[in-house]
């Protein structure tokens, strides 16, 4: 029997239900996976609240790591006992569980240097940071970026990766405690978005020029400030909507903001090609294994604490990565 978290209606954390079910044997192309750790991501709240619509009832979570317990027909690249991790989108929903069947094609075999807890804390966040730093913009050494939610799970990895690329990082946070965390992971300058004019401070810190790229995971509350922080022909990367959806805009505003660019990327489109996915995975794992990028697991929960975990996440009480330990 497996314990699985499901929701039968959209809403707040209280709509999550804990259910027991039989896992069964893997079919062709599948494996039965016993989870060791499960990632807690802000995207999980989007599925639960209906921002990302899915047929109901539905499982939750699309990132986890564990040990293969059975292999279905046709699976040749994995075997019983292998440690693996995965992330995806709707094709991997159901990670909030103790055990599950899953398509072997989405699984990533873990090297000895990466623990299951590290993997659950970094597969989605790390691959997101990987494509943001390596695929989204042709960064040149010495450029400056603005990073919202700099003390979050993705933010801490992006900050460290940006320093490896020789970039200057301006991070926004909500508190002194989070500022300390962000600075320790590579942020050169801190802006307190709740009490400072972000765009004005960015102009001060860049001699009036603005930044090359803004990584904005906050959304509605920071959107205009992010646009106003860009240099001429800069890029705004909208990677989340923690404060709510960005309202519709007139594209002419981009011309008024210095011929700015906007993109709203999704991880799934950067790992759809197996070769590109392997490239991102290898570079990420290499940095972590060598100690060049540290994965901070600052919150650990039991699966039965999923409701509280979501409340902590949406209440901005967390820093770094959060995981469920199975």
Task: Report on this structure.
This protein is α/β, with parallel strands linked by helices. Helix content is 28%, strand content 27%. Strands 3, 5, 6, 7, 8, 15 and 16 form a 7-stranded mixed sheet that branches. It comes from Comamonas guangdongensis. InterPro entries: ADH-like_C (IPR013149), ADH-like_N (IPR013154), ER (IPR020843), GroES-like_sf (IPR011032), NAD(P)-bd_dom_sf (IPR036291), QOR-like (IPR047618), Quin_OxRdtase/zeta-crystal_CS (IPR002364). Keywords: NADP, Oxidoreductase.
Please name the defining characteristics of this protein.
Quinone Oxidoreductase, Chain A, domain 1; 6-stranded parallel beta sheet; 27% strand; 28% helix; Rossmann fold; alpha/beta; 7-stranded mixed beta sheet; single chain; 2 domains; 326 residues
Determine and state the CATH class of the largest domain. Alpha Beta
Strand content: 25-35%
Helix and strand sequence: EEEHEEEEEHEHEHEHEHEHEHEHE
Whole-number count of domains: 2
Query: Major β-sheet, in short?
Result: 7 strands, mixed
How far do the termini sit from each other?
14 Å
Query: Low-confidence segments, ≥5 residues, pLDDT <50?
Result: none
Shape: globular
């Amino acid at each position: 029997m497996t314990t699985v978290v499901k929701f039968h209606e959209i809403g707040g954390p209280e709509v999550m239900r804990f259910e027991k079910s039989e896992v069964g044997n893997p079919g062709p192309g599948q494996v039965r996976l016993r989870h060791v750790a499960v990632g807690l991501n802000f995207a999980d709240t989007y599925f639960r609240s209906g921002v990302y619509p899915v047929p109901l009832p539905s499982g939750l979570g699309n990132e986890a790591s564990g040990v293969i317990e059975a292999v279905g027909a046709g699976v040749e690249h994995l075997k019983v006992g292998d440690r693996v991790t995965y992330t995806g989108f709707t094709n991997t929903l159901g990670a909030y569980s103790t055990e599950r069947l899953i398509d072997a094609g989405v699984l990533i075999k873990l090297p000895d240097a990466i623990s299951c807890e590290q993997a659950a804390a970094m597969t989605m966040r790390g691959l997101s940071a990987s494509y943001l730093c390596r695929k989204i913009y042709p960064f040149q050494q010495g450029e400056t970026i603005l990073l919202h939610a700099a003390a979050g799970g993705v933010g801490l990895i992006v900050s460290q990766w940006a320093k490896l690329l020789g970039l200057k990082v301006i991070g926004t946070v909500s508190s002194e405690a989070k500022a300390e965390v962000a600075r320790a992971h590579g942020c050169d300058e801190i802006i307190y978005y709740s009490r400072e004019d972000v765009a004005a401070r960015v102009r001060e810190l860049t001699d009036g020029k603005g930044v090359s790229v803004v990584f904005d995971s906050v959304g509605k509350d920071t959107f205009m400030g992010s646009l106003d922080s860009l240099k001429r022909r800069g890029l705004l990367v909208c990677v989340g909507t923690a404060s709510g959806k960005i309202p519709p805009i007139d594209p002419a505003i981009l011309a008024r903001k210095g011929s700015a660019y906007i993109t709203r990327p999704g991880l799934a489109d950067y790992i759809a090609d197996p070769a590109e996915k392997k490239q991102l995975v290898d570079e990420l794992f290499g940095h972590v294994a060598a100690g060049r990028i540290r994965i901070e697991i600052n919150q650990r929960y039991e699966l039965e604490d999923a409701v509280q975990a979501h409340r902590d996440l949406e209440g901005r009480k967390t820093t770094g990565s959060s995981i469920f330990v199975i």
